[in-house]
Specification:
The complex is a heterodimer of chains A (604) and B (350). Chain A is 44% helix and 14% strand. With 604 residues, chain A is an alpha/beta fold. About 3% of the residues of chain A have low confidence. The chains are: A alpha/beta (604), B mainly alpha (350). At the A-B interface, strand 14, strand 15, helix 9, helix 11 and helix 12 of A face helix 1 of B.
């Protein structure tokens, strides 16, 4: 029996899950058109690699990514590309983004698939590559590219792999239904991920309000080492941080990732996608989505092709338009409202709620905070929501950050329990947004200042070099003249012409060398220390440069020492900024090395 | 299809402030009932008078401040302040004493600081402390003699007449000092047994008062059960008072015994209904414990060595002063952090 821990706070909202669990998962009819946003998750948007009018096959990639942080998009069915244009996409702001519109031809003609039935004989890298090429991003909600997540930092070992089947948000039943009906695929996906990560423990965590799912997963994991852990129903136990605390008693360090404490969480839907991608060669083209709410006569759980417009799903679920007041993508605690039902289902769409006015009534007007502290009682992150609210409202961002504003997971519990009906989460979101904007501006200003300073330094250096060259010329000319005079006096009248020629050719040579040096100079970037050293070595005498480099080295060493002592202090105090300091030390270490190298080169 | 655009969370299940305040008011009923039965009609008349005046003062101030009147009156906080004053003032206090207390509470302590949620001090206790200092005679001599209303207590009309006329001579027949006052002043000359023979004490504890305190305790436990208040403040107030009493006063011939500390005066009303006022109390769990314990300790100190027999108002106000300080140094440790971040935000906080 696995030991369970509790997390502080949490609530028990009305679940309303029974609405959509009465029938098995259904497949909706093929919509008239599928709209596939190029960006469906966190990360870089994909680039369309098909052209308008082209016929594509089911599972064929239609948008690719070049950067590491992003996943491709595939055609969910065979058909013709109608357009690549700006369309409304599911986003809290109701914005539009680039989308590929596909008109299905109804033939469901698959592109070539390449199953990796015996994946264990392949390299892990090949399987990871397959996961990436299959367009898999976390299907829980945030949509982090799965292959990136499955590559934890080199120095972190994942001991515990958790499959998150908690599904604590009210209304949502996508994971529940998937676990009931596709337990085998889920367990296969988990085993593939376990094979990649080689953890010591594999846990499937399910809230105790899903007995059917627990039974199905128990059956599918029989004979394996996987533990099925039934956890108490409480919102937000499905939050990654809370789930880790429930199962391990450990906390993910602030600003860190679960891998920092040897844990990784994956969603059950992601496991299905991984299993299909590896064993059947099928990319991620559909997902299980709950379509529920009291404005529907026929709510249920659907296996939806990505790109299916929400309105098509609502029609399938029997929308009663006159009853609909609020359309929510996601759960009632963390989801966002849609302005239009024409947005498509994307990889992160786990639930659509068509709510009536009685079901989710408009909140009463905001009253003053009476500091009752119910928000702090219920906050699962143990923040002080009311202090954060005052600071956020007053624009005292520094104080809000000091009270760990950025640790807020925006679960919505504080607003849920607030007797004064204050939309607390909204204040935090706004404050976070403002702080991010300020940081970006700060960074921009810093960069501008750096650029300006670099330019000043370059101009000064050029001035100095010009001056040096002038002096050099004057010296050379004076020497030549002196030599001429001396030779003229020595050799008498017979050979002055030859000597003049020699002196002239020496001057010409010098001028050529200078020109060459000048020509080579702009090619080397002026900012990096090595090239600065080299260019100086070429043009001027060596001695002053070595001095400068030595100075540079001693400065860098001094800085490194200070940073190291700061780091030791921070470590001794267990302060929160240890990581930052570690990075700073590493950076300074590099700097010292570079300076040493440059100095060595200059001396040779 | 008019789709509502709202921010998450879309589901809410909060008891609105008005509702919470109403429950608190209802929870005082057992105590009020005990007061009425044991000390006559005085407190009941006070309560009605204070609530009416509090609502009137609140409405007038909201109007002057240009705020929506109905919106704020409906939150029941002004009515609660009136109610608490009506419960804590002496039953036979003249009408103008309670009026001064209520007006000070609503106008000075609440609305001039910005209304609901902005007052640093407990409004009811500001009003109480003000009249206690301003009208010491009326505040210490108008406590009713414990007498059941169906026996020798003044009738409703008599009580009303005493309160409206405010004539000391008429009320002498019905009034006496509180048990805490009796004990404190008599113990210097008498033994505890002799002190306890005074009619105000009855069977060893304060006669009538123990029932009033039991009534407020009952209401308080109900509020805890309803999760309208948390246990931290009442437990630490009573704990602080009890601890002080045990440390200093086990000898009943020198100091007021614990039973009288707990069951006489405003102890239970203070611990469950006054110190728990969220607006002026500390916030975090740890902070609430410090705040409550501070009140308990101060109540003991003022009762024992101070000039006033009961001390809840002063103790609460003094700890209200300390709240920003307590809050500053008692934040909870946030998930994923090694330690709580205290004090002033500085640089290098990573």
């Amino acid at each position: 029996m696995t030991q369970l821990w509790d997390f502080s706070g949490g609530i028990h909202p009305a679940e309303n899950k029974y609405l959509s669990t009465t029938r098995p998962i259904e497949t909706p009819t093929l919509p008239e058109r599928l709209v596939l946003p190029l960006q469906q998750h966190i990360g870089a948007p994909a680039e369309a690699c098909v052209s308008v009018g082209e016929r594509v096959l089911k599972g064929q990639p239609i948008a690719k990514v070049t950067g590491a942080f992003g996943v491709p998009v595939h055609a969910p069915t065979s058909g013709n590309i109608e357009a690549i244009s700006m369309q409304p996409v599911p986003h809290p702001s109701g914005m539009s983004d680039w989308c590929i519109t596909l008109i299905p031809d109804g033939q469901e003609e698959w592109a070539e698939r390449d199953p990796m039935t015996d994946y264990r004989s392949l390299t892990r890298e090949a399987v990871l590559q397959r996961i990436r090429e299959s367009g898999i991003a976390g299907l829980g909600g945030a949509g982090f590219p799965t292959d990136v997540k499955l590559r934890p930092p080199k120095d972190r070992k994942v001991n515990t792999l958790i499959l998150n089947g908690a599904e604590c948000e009210p209304y949502i039943t996508a994971d529940d239904m998937a676990m009931r009906e596709r337990a085998d695929e889920i367990v296969t996906g988990l085993r593939i991920m376990a094979w990649i990560l080689r953890p010591e423990r594999c846990i499937v965590a399910i809230e105790d309000n899903k007995p059917e799912a627990v039974a199905a997963i128990r059956k599918a994991t029989e004979g394996t080492q996987t533990e099925v852990v039934v956890i108490p129903t409480k919102y937000p136990s499905g939050g990654e941080k809370q789930l880790i605390q429930i199962l391990t008693g450990m906390e993910v360090p602030s600003g860190g990732i679960p891998a920092d404490i040897g844990v990784m969480c994956q969603n059950t839907g992601t496991a299905i996608a991984v299993s299909r991608a590896v064993l059947h060669g099928e990319p991620l083209i559909s997902r299980i989505t709950t379509v529920t709410g009291r404005a529907l006569s026929n709510p249920g759980t659907f296996d939806v092709l990505l790109g299916t417009p929400v309105e098509h799903l609502l029609t399938q679920a029997g929308l009663e338009s006159e009853a609909l007041r609020r359309l929510i993508l996601g759960g009632p605690m963390m989801g966002y409202t849609l302005e239009t039902p024409s947005v498509p289902v994307v990889k992160t769409t786990n639930c659509v709620i068509a709510a009536t006015g009685q079901e989710l009534p408009t909140p009463p007007p905001e009253q003053p905070c009476i500091r009752c502290g119910m928000c702090a009682e219920a906050c699962p992150m143990e923040l002080l929501p009311q202090q954060l609210f005052w600071h956020s409202k007053a624009g005292e961002h520094e104080k809000a950050e000091h009270l760990n504003l950025f640790d807020c997971i925006e679960c919505g519990i504080c607003s849920y329990v607030c007797p004064s009906s204050i939309p607390l989460v909204q204040y935090y979101r706004a404050a976070k947004g403002e702080i991010r904007v300020q940081r970006a501006e700060h960074l921009k200003a810093d960069r501008a200042r750096e650029r300006f300073e670099a330019r000043q330094a370059r101009l000064e250096r050029e001035q100095q070099e010009k001056e040096d060259r002038r002096k050099e010329r004057a010296r050379a000319a004076a020497e030549a003249q002196a030599r001429n005079q001396a030779e003229a006096e020595d050799a008498g009248p017979e050979s002055p012409a030859a000597d003049n020629r020699a002196a002239k050719s020496a001057l010409v040579e010098q001028a050529l060398a200078r020109k060459k040096a000048k020509a080579s100079q702009p090619a080397a970037p002026a900012v990096s220390p090595e090239s600065k050293g080299e260019s100086k070595v070429e043009t001027t005498e060596q001695a002053p440069d070595i001095d400068a480099l030595e100075k540079q080295l001693s400065q860098a060493t001094a800085k490194l020492n200070t940073m190291q002592s700061m780091l030791e202090d921070a470590r001794a105090e267990n302060a929160d900024n240890v990581e930052k300091l570690e990075r700073a030390v590493a950076k300074n270490h590099d700097r010292v090395k570079r300076a040493e190298k440059a100095l060595a080169e200059a001396r040779n | 299809m008019a789709l509502a655009q709202q921010t998450s969370p879309h589901a809410r299940r909060a008891r609105p402030t008005s509702n919470l305040m109403l429950w608190v008011m209802l929870a005082t009923l057992p105590g009020l009932l005990a007061q009425t039965i044991f000390f006559g009609w005085g407190n009941l008349i006070n309560v009605i008078w204070c609530i009416a005046l509090a609502l009137g003062a609140e409405a007038a101030m909201l109007r002057l401040r240009g705020r929506p009147i109905a919106f704020f009156l409906k939150d029941n906080t002004a009515a609660l302040t009136g109610l608490l004053l009506g419960l804590s003032l002496p039953p036979l206090a003249p009408w103008w004493v309670s009026a001064v207390a209520v007006l000070a509470a609503i106008i000075l302590a609440k609305q001039l600081y910005g209304g609901l949620g902005s007052n640093p001090f407990n409004p009811a206790m500001v009003g109480y402390a003000l009249v206690l200092i301003s009208f010491p005679v009326a505040m210490t001599t108008t406590w009713a003699e414990p007498a059941l209303i169906w026996q020798s207590a003044p009738s409703l009309l008599e009580t009303l007449n005493i309160i409206v006329s405010g004539q000391q001579s008429t009320i002498d027949a019905f009034t006496m000092a509180t048990p805490l006052d009796q004990y404190k002043h008599n113990i210097s000359a008498q033994t505890s047994t002799e002190v306890l023979q005074h009619p105000t004490f009855g069977e060893g504890v304060a006669r009538g008062w123990e029932w009033v305190n039991a009534g407020f305790l009952l209401g308080g436990i109900w509020l805890l059960f309803m999760r309208i208040i948390t246990w931290n403040i009442p437990v630490s107030v009573l704990g602080g008072l009890a601890a002080m009493s045990v440390v200093f006063g086990t000898n009943a011939d020198l100091y007021t015994p614990l039973s009288i500390h707990l069951l006489a005066g405003a102890t239970m009303l203070g611990a469950f209904f006054i110190a728990t006022d969220p607006v002026s109390a500390a916030t975090s769990h740890q902070g609430k414990l410090i705040y409550g314990a501070g009140i308990g300790v101060l109540v003991y100190l003022i009762r024992t060595w101070g000039a006033y027999p009961d001390a809840v108002a002063f103790a609460v106000l003094l700890m209200n002063f300390a709240v920003p300080f307590i809050d500053y140094y008692t934040p909870p440790r946030t998930y994923g952090h090694h330690k709580a971040r205290r004090g002033i935000p500085g640089r290098n906080q990573g």
